[in-house]
TrEMBL record:
GO molecular function annotations of the record: oxidoreductase activity
Gene3D superfamilies: D-Amino Acid Oxidase, subunit A, domain 2, FAD/NAD(P)-binding domain
Source species of the chain: Streptomyces lydicamycinicus
Domain FAD dependent oxidoreductase residue range list: 13-358
Listed GO CC annotations: cytoplasm
Protein name: Oxidoreductase
Keyword Oxidoreductase applies: yes
Cross-referenced InterPro entries: FAD-dep_OxRdtase (IPR006076), FAD/NAD-bd_sf (IPR036188)
Superkingdom, natural source: Bacteria
Keyword Oxidoreductase: yes
Pfam families cross-referenced by the UniProt entry: DAO
Length: 389
């Protein structure tokens, strides 16, 4: 990165806190729109937080219209990424396949498919036999139905971060990695400066895109951002010979066990329901027993596959598993985009656009008022999202 700094500039128009896919997307979209003097502050390397995960799913299959809109808009941007901003993110549009094992799940997903179709998403309900044709590893025993959308898939978040950051740096954005935010100055109803361990930055606007660390940043400004860190783990199989068939991003909805292609093998994941909150990202292979138990029921061949590596990262979870996107009501120049609860990578392009428009006082392509953090303190309606993994 050409425009990186170990001592921060003394002034900036916009300081973005967080150098993951969300922060770099916001920086790119702001710079593309002609906003100058942007500084991105990141406590580690760019993309070293939640965006560091090896593979990220991209989808528009959600139950909430706002999430469908964010996912669908972002899918188009991921498809266009080689041209704008110009990078290969290894997008593989293999589709998402949700496996449903109860009549209630099938009914709920059918309602979701109707809504998705009305918003231009080509998802559909399929039977167990077609699901098995798409993913030969499946056992159809106990499988009631599946939901499939062929334009979903997966890509590499780290490559997306680099692509956004390089384009933003070319446009003059300054990146300050290995720089921790230590405090914020406020005067009246304005944030006036960001303090870091490499210096103070006087600024006109602060945008919090700090992922799992956002509650701490919000507290520095007196803004309640109810985000908690939860460890999520995944594993990679040893190389498979013969190679694995090309399969969708496949999810056993009841157990949250998921698997898909990864280089010369498969990637396994599962959300451990007993996982305590915290910032620990130590990989502990014992969680694999949960995955293997689910696989024995749904994809038996996977249950005994050898794994040779793994990874642990953080979800940034809100009380209703939906994002916090908006502008503080008490500090109008403090904006935030966080709490994506596992959906941040797939929504990052659309959210970058939205944060650009909020900063420029333009109407975004979709009304994100319902995603304001204030919904948890004012009694406003929360956003239920059923398609959570």
């Amino acid at each position: 990165m050409s425009s990186t700094s170990r001592t921060v500039p003394p002034t900036a128009d916009v300081v973005i806190i967080g150098g993951g896919v969300m922060g770099t997307s916001i920086a790119f979209h702001l710079a593309e729109a002609g906003v100058h003097n942007i500084v991105v502050v990141e406590r580690g390397e760019l993309g070293s937080g939640s965006s560091g995960k090896p593979i990220g799913g991209v989808r528009a299959q959600f139950s909430d219209p706002l999430n469908i809109a964010l996912g669908s808009r972002s899918l188009r941007a991921w498809q266009d990424f080689p041209q704008r901003p110009g990078a290969d993110i290894r997008l593989d549009s293999v589709g998402y396949l949700f496996l449903l094992t109860s009549d209630q799940q099938a009914a709920d997903f059918e309602t979701g498919v109707h809504l998705q179709n009305s918003l231009g998403v080509p998802s559909r309900m399929i039977g167990p036999r077609e699901a098995q044709q798409l993913c030969p590893y499946l056992s159809t025993d106990g499988l009631v139905a599946a939901a499939y959308s062929p334009t979903d898939g997966h890509a590499r978040p780290g490559l997306a971060v680099q692509g956004y950051a390089r384009a933003a740096a070319r446009a003059g954005v300054v990146f300050a990695p290995h720089t921790a935010v230590t405090g914020l100055d406020t005067t009246g109803d304005r944030v006036t400066a960001v303090h870091t361990d490499h210096g103070r930055i006087s600024c006109s606007t602060v945008i919090c895109a700090a992922g799992a660390w956002s509650a701490r940043i919000g507290a520095m400004a007196g803004v309640h951002l109810p985000v908690r860190p939860v460890r999520r783990q995944l594993a990679f199989t040893a190389p498979l010979a013969p190679p694995a068939p090309r399969i969708p991003f496949t999810i056993d909805f009841a157990s949250t066990a998921y698997f898909h292609n990864s280089d010369d093998g498969l990637l396994f994941g599962l959300a451990d329901p007993e996982q305590a909150d915290g910032f620990d990202t130590t990989w502990t292979p014992d969680w694999l027993r949960l995955f293997r138990a689910a696989a024995r029921r749904r994809a038996p061949a996977l249950a005994d596959m050898e794994t040779h590596d793994g990874w642990a990262g953080l979800y940034e979870v809100t009380p209703d598993h939906n994002a916090l996107i908006g502008r503080s009501g008490t500090l109008p120049n403090f904006l935030y985009a966080t709490g994506f609860s596992g959906h941040g990578f797939l929504q990052a392009p659309a959210v970058g656009e939205i944060m650009r428009d909020l900063h420029l006082d333009r109407a975004p392509f979709v009304d994100v008022t319902p995603l304001s953090a204030d919904r948890f303190t004012t009694g406003a309606e929360t956003r239920p999202e059923a398609h959570v993994v």
